[in-house]
Structure formats: C-alpha cells, structure tokens
TrEMBL record:
Gene3D superfamilies named in the record: HAD superfamily/HAD-like (3.40.50.1000), Putative mannosyl-3-phosphoglycerate phosphatase, domain 2 (3.30.980.20)
InterPro entries the record matches: HAD-like_sf, HAD-SF-IIB-MPGP, HAD-SF_hydro_IIB, HAD_sf
Protein's organism: Aequoribacter fuscus
Keyword Magnesium: yes
Official protein name in the record: Putative mannosyl-3-phosphoglycerate phosphatase
GO biological process, alphabetically ordered: mannosylglycerate biosynthetic process
Superkingdom of the source species: Bacteria
Amino acid sequence: MSVNLMVVTDLDGTLLDHYSYDFKPAMSVVSSLKRSGIPLVFNSSKTHAEMRYLQDQMGLLDPMICENGSAIYLPKDRFRTAQSAWEDHGDFWRISLAKPREHWLRILAEYPDQGSILSFSTMGIQGVMNTTGLDWAGSERASQREYTEPLMPPANNEIKQDLITYLNGKGALVQQGGRFITVGDSVDKGRAMETLACFWRQEYGLPVRTLALGDGLNDVAMLEKANRSVWIRSPVNPIPDLVKQKDWHITQECGPKAWAAATQMWLEQHSHLVNSNKVKEHYG
C-alpha cells in the first residue's frame, strides 16, 4: 500500500545539540529527506520565528508545530486552498489550537509567590540569553511567543509543585522540557501531530506513516502516537522510567549525531516507500 512518510522531531537536545544548538551532524540526512520529498516537521516548544529561522538555515519549507502543540503552520505551496478556520500567515496557513500567551501571563501575574517565578516575560532578552546561551537575535526569536510562557523550574521541589498545582487549577497544562517548564493550554505535541497527519491525508489522499524523535517528557505524547518512536539520549538528564517501559528505540549517543543515525536507519527500512512520497503537483 502506498503511504506518505513524515518525520516529526523535537529540536533542542534532539535535532539540535543540547549545548551548542548545532545541527550540522544531521544535515546529510536532512538533505536526504528533502530529496525524497519527505517532510521534516519541527514539533517543539520553540516559537514560529525560531522555527522559520532554522528552516531557512536548513533550506526547508515544511509544516511546523509550534509551542508544544499550540499551533500548526502549513506551507501554502503544499496546501493551496485554506479551510475556513485557517489564518493567513505569510508563506503559511496557521491553525491555532490554544489560548493566547496573554491569558497565561495574567494568571502568572496573580500567583501570590512572585519570587518563585522566573519566566521569559520577566527575565527579558538578556535573561533569556543568560539561561539559554543564545545570542541576542536568537533570544529575541525565542521571546516572540504567541501561546505559551516558559519558566525556569524552581530549584525547590515543594515550591515547584505548589506553582504547578496553582497553574493546573487555572486550567493550564505545565509541560517539562529539557531546560524549562512551559505553561500553556491543554494541548500537546501528539494531538497536534495527529491533526497535521489528518490534513496531509486529506490533501494528498494517502495515509501517513510517522517517525517521531524526542528527548523530553513533553515529547512523550508525540512518541506515543507515532508509527515509530526514537528517544534521543540526553547528556544531562537520565532516561525516565516511563520511557524504559516503552517499545521505543533509545539511542546510545546524543543530539544530532544520534538523530541522524536513527533517521537514516528508518529511511533504509522504508526505502521501498520513498517514491510514494513524491507528492502530487498542485495546479492553481
């Protein structure tokens, strides 16, 4: 049976090196995906601005899932006709799945213990630079959030749990990433990936077979819903017990080198399906 192949990936610590954000060790495989017509979907807590910058660096124009499943961006050259709920956003159609960032900033501002909150909005661009290692331009892109607010998790676990309990009581979903906890709506990477696959199937008339790769707890929902799942080993965090219990491939190496090896292996296993990914031409 013909299918469309799709690679869906987290970024920090997965396709990007945890420390340097370098992706060069993965570029040969990224280029193979592009030549084969297989979309490389970024599915991350990162912003639209950050993802577009990375796409430009890699020579890509593929769908994106931003801010932990809060919005899907579909390139217009692959989806010529918008559905009624899709918003015009430059080269993309945007499908918003979550409440705006301002909603969660108001809730954070009402928390009694303001000293325990260190978020992107309170630390400013310089603070984002200090905590992420990004340069000024990268920190500006990271701060252009539309749906979520990242926080440095309090070092004291009791204080952290008090904050999470408060936020959950206000309807927020608090997701743990590699560096930050992220406050946002009750959405996740997995549901957004399924929605994207549905749009792709409607557009191209073929079922979608997904490879998903991630390294953080906020990737679990995505990995659980993929056809093939890869856990990228972290250089700083132990493998969660939850992950050890899954039938997922766990890499021995970290970051983009591990990502490249796992994705290349999956490509070789699906080489007989690659031709079906040469998506149909659109005529306007």
